[in-house]
């Protein structure tokens, strides 16, 4: 739903912006860019119930996805007692990186989003992660959304009830998880941590975790509880009974047949009974290992001994940007992590893949790591001595790369990567030759490679496990000479992240054999020991990516109290908690994924654009000045959101005879299908206008013409914007009989940069900048002829995790015949001064603002409803600026402080108190000014 | 062309206006007073068989009639040549089945979940409340166009009610069985103490049904005493059918059961593998039933498979057996003409949208209902 609103508001904003671009160049926006690095040649596979959209070499993945979708459909049609009367579009991308380019949603898709169902056009959009198990899970999850929303719609529509209602988000997401998968290691890890560490919230307070990952897992857990205690049939009945009450809590009460408070209490008790006994023989990492980082999000450590000490290098995020860190470790108190390479601010290191890729370090102190870098991932080599990237490798065929590991001589690096087909395989990169060799090539998910006892053997994790434990991730070895693959482990669990000790005799890995991921080891010193694995940790929650620090001491990342931290542990003299002797008797032949059974079920066609309505709204308004007017705005787009048409029409006629000439129409097309986005359109505007810039008067203007815009994103953080418009303008000031005719040609070019990250009320870190050059001239009558320059620079200096000093400096310059004036004053710029009361053809403005957290949460509990306000922030500010035409006047300013409250993540309420400064900032005006406004901080 | 579009719009607005203003009344001139199909499944034992129809060759669309709301898996009751059908927006419609024209409508505020019952000139239906856990059993005189009696019931009625001789029996969702006389006077009530979504059937002694806990329950009609309550399977959402001294029901896992009507003991069961929500058709020593994964079965009186046919659809409305032909509705926007002897699909008829209403045969017409409240009639050619 949020997605729909965002899309609609995005369209409206774009429409308003473009429709007024020639008039209000003073207003603009920054924002990052969704870069279309690739041109996708879409094809469609038609199955019995789905249109599966795929591109390039993804045919096999599309067929497998189509099979999964039909399989889920056949299961859900029974569970939901429901069918569809339309075909469901499934849009597949081969990687998360390509998925992040989709225009089916206008917003940015963060790392880790597995897919989404977009309600407006009923589109399901899913990337491959290289794992068919994950791919199937996400397809099932999104189709559970599709079935649920359609079922609820029909339950309401059948009864002629309003159809705009859905269950709350915790239920919607928990339901999709419940339907699509069993409780896995990740869900169990989160629930154990939440219950044992007392941040688990019951139904009554579930709003506190709205939109978080825990919300998904708590929702799933609640439905598991209902199914187990009250019967599986209750789950679908919660949807079928949805029509009965507008309050979903009452639907739950009625369906289960108990009071809501009692159900909530039972659920919490159920989890205590389930998880509290685990403490008896399992413990949080901090009690059994040494925690070496403070609360943050730190992953995949590697250890390196430098001349002056022992260091851990790792990737993490402690300030909003994923980055590379180092930390000196010793016996005494640990140091704070030190940032050595900042990510997410430049195109080169656009994103570290914290959850999916590990690091490695060579004996010489070269770190191998992966970041997104433009269109694909890049493998970087970072010298810890010079603290510089010394080499990067990138290939257009290897879209997504992960977990590089050095060979024993440090000349080779093995890693796994996803290719154009969307499958993950193992590769070896030769550093000297700058070339890559592919070792596996199939749809099994091969990952986490590690050089084995010799450099011509690679140990890796793969779901190619066959037989009794089909599709489980076991450890395998591949001989790089003859590419023969053999099992290293064969158990009914997922074994990942293998790492060898320096003497190559001990193999560590993590395994969910005991529900969550703990650390296990295998003794490789003698061949006959290879059929045993030993569990070496019994942590309550999962641990990841162990590495050896010496022959017995290890370091790893662990999940505890909702954060990921680094821990060290000495395995010396540690007795195994559990030993599994592996039996390979039940290994079968390689598994094959299911296929669409009937040839008639699949029909492959080239995609042809079909346009459907995105948004339509009409409005009639009456205004004492402008009279009564009515209009409508609507937009159309194709399935991928690449080709968009916007239509605006309204009429401003006061009398019937003016009806035809008072039509205001704008039609425009925006094409987002390629890296360069362009748009063009025509318009006709006619009616009375209010000129705030010049005369403070009303005037009549009829203008018509066309425009063309072209934006080129240099990277996610920078772009060039250009526009040209031609407009015939007849303007008449009403109070006098002044008339001005002009054929205006305007063109502009801008450079825009934005790498800022935001807190609840505005940016906290990074920069935002714009430099605009424009020229406007009357090519027919020479009545208008001026050029414009705008330079606006904003930088945000972090002084704490949630505090910042924000600085803005902007300069606006118009020069020439009938040059337009800029204006300022009010809450958005020069605070305290009359809104838009300071005007001039030239203008400058500077602001300095301290932004600090004030109150994180206020909860007010009335007997009938609970109210909560989050993210209340305080600010102290100083503004200065001036505007003039020919002669510079006085510099004006203001100082003050205020509070800001984020309301529903949609807008910010701001209230400021301050004093105005005049006479070139030398004199404080008497009295205070009070100002409130809705809007984000600059 | 534009003029035609404007004309259509004005016509639509006028039609909506006129329909919206139509009176809430059904008043009919009765002649033969024949109760053709007085309730869902014709008789309290639930019978979906039309042996008199004989061979069906083709079906041709004859008329369609549009209602306000939509249907659940309900059906149509017939008195003389009038069909009575409920919808989920709170309407009971009367349709002249010969012409396909409306003959009256009762407008209520809450959904009517089950097929209306006919008793002489009295229409009996239950209005189920949304925001309150109650229902109203109403007796309406459609000869005089007047409300006769009503009775408030604790709990919601989400299933089909029954007329048993001179009484109405029903079971609420929250598990209370009631018996009312035909004047709306309560005779007895019995607490089952479990949720009930399954629809009951009855002979002259006993009402039987299943509950959400997977129990089959027998309630004596004369006293309301629970004769048996046996846990047998998973949740029951299907209807119940009685034939001779046995009753048939199917559960959420797709298991079809045959029980002894006297004591509720299991005689046989057959697993179809997917949830069943329809009534079993019992006729001539065989049980006909379909499940939600789209497979239709003919099972022998010993619980052995005779044949099965996979339609790939979703069978959630009770079919009918007409002579040697099964009419099997599929929510996948079609219905099938199936040879009852061998299970072969003789013909497939598509509809505009999902089929919701269990079909009936009236004279030479097959009548069924599809999504968004459209009743359709097909002429049968033999």
Quick gist of this model?
The complex is a heterodimer of chains A (938) and B (382). By secondary structure, chain A is an alpha+beta fold.
Task: Report on the architecture of this protein.
The complex is a heterodimer of chains A (938) and B (382). Chain A is an alpha+beta fold. Chain A has 11 helices and 52 strands. Chain A has an 18-stranded antiparallel beta sheet that branches. Chain A has a 6-stranded mixed beta sheet with strand order 4-5-3-2-1-32. In chain A, strands 11, 12, 13, 14 and 15 form a 5-stranded antiparallel beta sheet that branches. In chain A, strand 33 and strand 34 form a beta hairpin. With 382 residues, chain B is mainly β. The N terminus of chain B is likely disordered. The chains are: A alpha+beta (938), B mainly beta (382).
Proportion of residues in extended strands of chain A? 35-45%
According to DSSP, the number of beta strands of chain B is: 35
Largest sheet of chain B: 6 strands, antiparallel
Shape of chain A: globular
Largest interface: A-B, 23 and 38 residues
Counting copies of identical and different chains, the oligomeric state is: heterodimer
What would you call the structural class of chain B?
mainly beta
In DSSP terms, counting alpha (H) and pi (I) runs of 4 or more, how many helices of chain B?
1
Radius of gyration of chain B: 20 Å
Query: What is the tally of beta strands of chain A?
Result: 52
Helix content of chain B: under 10%
Kindly state the percentage of residues in helix of chain A.
Answer: 10-25%
Structural class of chain A: alpha+beta
Low-confidence segments of chain B, given as residue ranges, are 1-5
Contiguous low-pLDDT stretches of chain A (5 residues minimum) are: 1-24
Rg of Cα set of chain A: 31 Å
Q: Which helices and strands appear, and what pairs or packs with what?
A:
The complex is a heterodimer of chains A (938) and B (382).
Chain A: H1 2-19, E1 42-46, E2 50-55, H2 59-80, E3 88-93, H3 96-99, E4 116-118, E5 123-127, H4 132-157, H5 169-180, H6 185-196, H7 213-230, H8 233-240, H9 248-256, H10 260-275, H11 285-288, E6 290-291, E7 297-306, E8 309-317, E9 323-329, E10 338-341, E11 351-352, E12 360-361, E13 366-373, E14 376-383, E15 388-393, E16 400-406, E17 412-418, E18 424-430, E19 435-438, E20 446-451, E21 457-462, E22 474-479, E23 485-487, E24 495-500, E25 506-514, E26 516-523, E27 532-535, E28 543-548, E29 553-560, E30 563-570, E31 578-581, E32 603-606, E33 612-623, E34 627-637, E35 643-651, E36 663-671, E37 677-691, E38 697-713, E39 718-733, E40 739-754, E41 757-758, E42 763-778, E43 785-798, E44 804-817, E45 822-824, E46 838-840, E47 842-861, E48 866-884, E49 892-903, E50 907-918, E51 923-924, E52 929-934
Parallel strand pairs in A: 2-3, 3-5
Antiparallel strand pairs in A: 1-2, 1-32, 4-5, 6-30, 7-8, 8-9, 9-10, 11-13, 12-13, 13-14, 14-15, 16-17, 17-18, 18-19, 20-21, 21-22, 22-23, 24-25, 25-26, 26-27, 27-31, 28-29, 29-30, 33-34, 34-35, 35-36, 36-37, 37-38, 38-39, 39-40, 40-42, 41-42, 42-43, 43-44, 44-47, 45-46, 47-48, 48-49, 49-50, 50-51, ...
Helix pairs in contact in A: 2-4, 4-5, 5-7, 6-7
Chain B: H1 2-21, E1 25-26, E2 35-37, E3 49-50, E4 58-66, E5 77-79, E6 82-87, E7 91-96, E8 101-107, E9 117-119, E10 122-128, E11 134-141, E12 146-154, E13 162-164, E14 167-171, E15 176-181, E16 186-191, E17 201-202, E18 206-210, E19 215-220, E20 226-231, E21 241-243, E22 246-250, E23 255-260, E24 266-271, E25 281-283, E26 286-290, E27 295-300, E28 305-310, E29 320-322, E30 325-330, E31 334-339, E32 345-350, E33 355-362, E34 365-370, E35 374-381
Parallel strand pairs in B: 3-29
Antiparallel strand pairs in B: 1-8, 2-5, 4-35, 5-6, 6-7, 7-8, 9-10, 10-11, 11-12, 13-14, 14-15, 15-16, 17-18, 18-19, 19-20, 21-22, 22-23, 23-24, 25-26, 26-27, 27-28, 29-30, 30-31, 31-32, 33-34, 34-35
């Amino acid at each position: 739903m949020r997605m729909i609103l965002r899309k609609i508001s995005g369209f409206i904003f774009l429409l308003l912006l473009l429709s007024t671009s020639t008039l209000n160049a003073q207003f603009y926006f920054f924002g990052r860019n969704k870069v279309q690095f690739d041109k996708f040649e879409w094809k469609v596979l038609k199955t019995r119930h789905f249109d599966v959209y795929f591109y390039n070499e993804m045919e096999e993945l599309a067929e497998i996805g189509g099979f999964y979708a039909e399989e889920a459909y056949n299961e859900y049609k029974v569970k939901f007692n429901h069918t569809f009367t339309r075909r469901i579009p499934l849009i597949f991308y081969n990687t998360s990186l390509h998925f992040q380019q989709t225009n089916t949603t206008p917003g940015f898709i963060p790392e880790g989003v597995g897919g989404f169902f977009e309600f407006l056009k009923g589109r399901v959009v899913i990337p491959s992660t290289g794992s068919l198990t994950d791919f199937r899970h996400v397809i099932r999850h999104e189709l559970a959304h599709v079935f649920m929303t359609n079922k609820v719609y029909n339950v309401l529509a059948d009864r002629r009830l309003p159809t705009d209602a859905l269950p709350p988000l915790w239920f919607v997401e928990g339901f999709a998880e419940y339907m699509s998968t069993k409780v896995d290691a990740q869900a169990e890890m989160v629930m154990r941590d939440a219950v044992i560490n007392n941040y688990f919230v019951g139904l009554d307070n579930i709003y506190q975790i709205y939109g978080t990952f825990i919300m998904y897992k708590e929702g799933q857990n609640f439905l598991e509880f209902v199914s187990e205690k009250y019967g599986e049939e209750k789950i679908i009945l919660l949807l079928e009974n949805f029509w009965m009450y507008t309050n979903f809590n009452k639907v739950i009460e009625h369906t289960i047949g108990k009071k809501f408070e009692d159900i909530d209490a039972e659920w919490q008790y159920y989890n205590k009974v389930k998880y509290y006994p685990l403490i008896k023989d399992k413990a949080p990492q901090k009690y059994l290992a040494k925690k070496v980082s403070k609360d943050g999000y730190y992953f995949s450590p590697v250890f390196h001994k430098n001349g002056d000490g022992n260091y851990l290098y790792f990737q993490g995020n402690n300030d909003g940007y994923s980055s590379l860190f180092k930390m000196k470790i010793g016996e005494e108190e640990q140091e704070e992590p030190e940032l050595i390479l900042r990510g997410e601010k430049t195109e080169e290191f656009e994103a570290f893949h914290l959850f999916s890729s590990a690091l490695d370090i060579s004996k010489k102190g070269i770190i191998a790591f992966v970041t997104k870098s433009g269109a694909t991932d890049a493998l970087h080599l970072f010298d810890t001595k010079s603290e510089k990237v010394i080499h990067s490798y990138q290939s257009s065929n290897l879209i997504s790369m992960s977990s590089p590991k050095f060979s024993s001589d440090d000349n080779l690096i093995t890693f796994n990567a996803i290719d154009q087909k969307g499958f993950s395989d193992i590769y070896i990169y030769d550093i000297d030759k700058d070339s890559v060799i592919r070792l596996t090539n199939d749809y099994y998910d091969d990952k986490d490679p590690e050089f084995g006892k010799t450099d011509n053997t690679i140990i890796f994790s793969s779901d190619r496990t066959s037989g009794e434990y089909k599709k489980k991730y076991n450890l395998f070895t591949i001989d790089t000479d003859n590419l023969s693959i053999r099992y290293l482990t064969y158990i009914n669990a997922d074994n990942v992240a293998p790492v060898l000790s320096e003497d190559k005799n001990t193999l560590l890995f993590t395994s969910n054999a005991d529900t969550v991921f703990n650390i296990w080891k295998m003794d490789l010193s003698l061949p006959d020991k290879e059929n045993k694995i030993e569990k070496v940790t019994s942590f309550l929650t999962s641990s990841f990516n162990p590495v050896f620090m010496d022959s017995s001491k290890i370091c790893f990342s662990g999940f505890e109290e909702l954060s990921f931290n680094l821990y060290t542990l000495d395995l010396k003299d540690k007795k195994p908690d559990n030993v599994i002797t592996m039996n390979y008797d039940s290994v079968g032949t390689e598994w094959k994924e299911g296929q669409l059974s009937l040839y008639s079920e699949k029909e492959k066609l080239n995609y042809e654009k079909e346009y459907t309505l995105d948004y339509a709204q009409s409005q009639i308004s009456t205004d004492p000045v402008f009279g009564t007017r009515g209009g409508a705005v609507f937009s159309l787009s194709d399935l991928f959101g690449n080709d968009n048409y916007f239509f605006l029409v309204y009429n401003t006629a006061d009398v019937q005879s003016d009806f035809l000439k008072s039509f205001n129409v704008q039609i425009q097309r925006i094409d987002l299908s390629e890296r360069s986005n362009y748009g063009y359109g025509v318009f006709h505007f006619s009616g009375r206008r209010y000129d705030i810039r010049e005369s403070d008067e009303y005037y009549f203007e009829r203008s018509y013409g066309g425009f063309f815009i072209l934006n080129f994103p240099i990277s996610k953080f920078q772009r060039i914007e250009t526009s040209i418009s031609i407009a015939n303008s007849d303007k008449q000031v009403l109070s006098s009989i002044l008339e001005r005719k002009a054929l205006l040609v305007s063109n502009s070019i801008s450079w825009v940069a934005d790498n800022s990250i935001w807190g609840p009320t505005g940016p906290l870190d990074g920069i935002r900048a714009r430099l605009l050059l424009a020229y406007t001239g009357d090519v027919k009558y020479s009545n208008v002829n001026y050029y414009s320059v705008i330079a606006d620079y904003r930088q945000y200096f972090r002084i704490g995790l949630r505090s910042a000093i924000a600085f803005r400096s902007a300069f606006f310059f118009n020069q020439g015949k009938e040059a337009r004036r800029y204006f300022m004053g009010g809450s958005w710029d020069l605070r305290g001064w009359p809104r838009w009361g300071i005007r001039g053809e030239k203008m400058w403005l500077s602001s300095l603002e301290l932004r600090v957290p004030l109150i994180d949460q206020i909860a007010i509990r009335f007997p009938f409803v609970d109210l909560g306000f989050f993210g209340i922030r305080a600010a102290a500010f100083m503004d200065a600026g001036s505007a003039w035409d020919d002669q510079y006047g006085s510099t004006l300013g203001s100082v003050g402080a205020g509070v800001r409250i984020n309301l529903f993540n949609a807008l910010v309420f701001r209230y400021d108190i301050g004093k105005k400064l005049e006479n070139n900032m030398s004199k404080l005006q008497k009295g205070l000014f009070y100002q409130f406004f809705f809007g984000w901080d600059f | 062309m534009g003029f035609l579009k404007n004309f259509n719009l004005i016509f639509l607005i006028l039609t909506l206006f006129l329909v919206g203003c139509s009176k809430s009344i059904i008043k009919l001139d009765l002649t033969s007073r024949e109760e053709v199909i007085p309730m869902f499944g014709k008789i309290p034992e639930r019978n979906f068989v039309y042996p008199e129809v004989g061979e069906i060759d083709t079906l041709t669309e004859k008329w369609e009639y549009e209602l306000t709301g939509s249907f659940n898996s309900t059906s149509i009751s017939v008195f003389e040549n009038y069909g009575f059908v409920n919808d989920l927006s709170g309407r009971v419609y009367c349709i002249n089945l010969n012409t396909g024209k409306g003959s009256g409508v009762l407008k209520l505020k809450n959904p009517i979940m089950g097929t209306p019952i006919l008793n002489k000139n009295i229409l009996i239906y239950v209005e189920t409340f949304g925001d309150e856990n109650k229902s109203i059993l109403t007796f309406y005189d459609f000869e005089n166009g007047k409300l006769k009696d009503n009775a408030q019931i604790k709990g919601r009625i989400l299933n089909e009610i029954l007329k048993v001789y001179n009484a109405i029996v029903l079971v609420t969702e929250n598990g209370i069985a009631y018996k009312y006389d035909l004047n709306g006077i309560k005779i007895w009530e019995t607490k089952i103490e479990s949720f009930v979504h399954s629809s009951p059937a009855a002979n002259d002694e006993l009402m039987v049904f299943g509950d959400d806990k997977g129990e089959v329950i027998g309630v004596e009609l004369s006293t309301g005493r629970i004769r048996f309550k046996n846990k047998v399977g998973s949740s029951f959402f299907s209807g119940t059918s009685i034939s001779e001294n046995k009753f048939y029901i199917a559960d959420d896992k797709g298991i079809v059961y045959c029980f002894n009507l006297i004591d509720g003991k299991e005689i046989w069961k057959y697993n179809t593998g997917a949830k069943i929500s329809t009534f079993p058709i019992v006729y001539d020593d065989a049980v006909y039933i379909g499940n939600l994964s789209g497979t239709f079965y003919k099972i022998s009186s010993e619980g052995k498979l005779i044949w099965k046919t996979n339609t790939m659809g979703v069978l959630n409305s009770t079919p009918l057996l007409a002579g040697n032909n099964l009419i099997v509705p599929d929510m996948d926007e079609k219905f099938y003409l199936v040879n009852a002897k061998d299970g072969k699909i003789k013909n497939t008829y598509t509809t505009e949208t999902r089929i919701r209403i269990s079909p009936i045969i009236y004279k030479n017409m097959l009548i069924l209902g599809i999504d968004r409240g459209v009743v359709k009639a097909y002429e049968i050619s033999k």
